[in-house]
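Students often ask why inverse folding is considered easier than folding. One informal answer: many sequences map to the same fold, so there is more than one right answer. In these notes we will look at a single instance of the problem. The structure comes first.
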């Protein structure tokens, strides 16, 4: 009987050790899995954050294509993105302690082009640029750089300056004539 009792105790000891080993393996596996999930970049995480800078010959998107001013004096910032599947976003520019929000729109004919409109910023000053998703208000890309140039919008109707009237003695000799416009003759609507 003592022999059977030793076998039962030994079996219980082996069973206890086996269960302990299985639990340690399961807990270790769970800890390692959770750590691997934390290391992966997700949309809701802020880091690692994609850098934002000017586009280059082989651009990493999103990137800044250009800066310009429209006829109303608003600054337009043109971006190149990954295309139609890039999330809708707005632009925030920080100049010192001031933050300025820019409304952004995708260009219908070019799925990779987006332009943002807002307050004109100074050329040459280093500014902080943040691309922020509209849906989740998450920073998608960030960069610090100066505006190195600004294209100016040409006015829609450019009128040359009106000449001042400087009368001279020969002005009376030059007849004032206004050429009559000539129109080609086309058959009328009833023809």
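Output (designed amino acids):
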């Amino acid at each position: 009987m003592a022999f059977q009792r030793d076998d039962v105790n030994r079996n219980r000891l082996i069973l206890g050790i086996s269960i302990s080993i299985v639990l340690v393996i399961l807990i270790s596996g769970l800890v390692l899995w959770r750590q691997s999930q934390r290391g992966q970049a997700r949309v809701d995480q802020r880091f690692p954050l994609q850098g934002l800078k000017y586009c280059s010959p082989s651009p990493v998107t999103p990137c800044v294509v250009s800066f310009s001013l429209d006829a109303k004096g608003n600054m337009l910032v043109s971006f190149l993105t990954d295309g139609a599947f890039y999330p809708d976003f707005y632009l925030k520019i920080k100049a010192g302690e001031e933050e300025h929000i820019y409304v952004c729109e995708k260009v219908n004919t070019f799925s990779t082009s987006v332009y943002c409109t807002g307050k004109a910023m100074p050329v040459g000053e280093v500014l902080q640029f943040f691309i922020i998703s509209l849906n989740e208000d998450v920073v998608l890309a960030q960069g610090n750089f100066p505006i190195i140039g600004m294209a100016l919008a040409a006015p829609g109707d450019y009128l040359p300056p009106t000449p001042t009237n400087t009368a001279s003695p020969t002005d009376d000799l030059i007849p004032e004539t206004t050429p009559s416009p000539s129109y080609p003759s086309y058959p009328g609507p009833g023809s």
